Amino acid sequence: MPFALWSILIAAFLPLVWTMVAKAGAPYDNSRPREVLAHASGYRQRANWAQQNAWEAFAPYAAAVIVAFVMKVPPTKLDTAAWVFLLARVAHGLCYVRNLATARSLSWMIGMGCVVYLFVAAGMA
């Protein structure tokens, strides 16, 4: 199985990393977890925003990988796009937490560029 298919699972867990950053060390009530994050500030708030954005990016990415795989895009192209997407999304979250807005936007564009690339590659396959 190509790495790109495994990357869907990895991408599904990335939002949870940012959730852990947002919740770590904060007073936490598991009966009202969203309330805790709604009142977060500073890096915890930004980590929560990174988590939300990671969920938003997941569905188009997963769809792009699956469509490209079904359309028989060569595995090397799939895997390269998967690695770039994952690295861009990790950078996106780190930039969010560190409040690096321009770098965050650039990493978001790179990640979404991978999604577009996969759909275009599928269309040309």
UniProtKB/TrEMBL annotation:
Its main location: membrane. The keyword Transmembrane helix applies. Keywords: Membrane, Transmembrane, Transmembrane helix. It comes from the Bacteria. Pfam families: MAPEG. It is found in: Membrane. GO terms for cellular component: membrane. The chain crosses the membrane at residues 80-97, 106-124. This is Putative MAPEG superfamily protein. It comes from Paludibacterium purpuratum. InterPro entries: MAPEG-like_dom_sf, Membr-assoc_MAPEG.
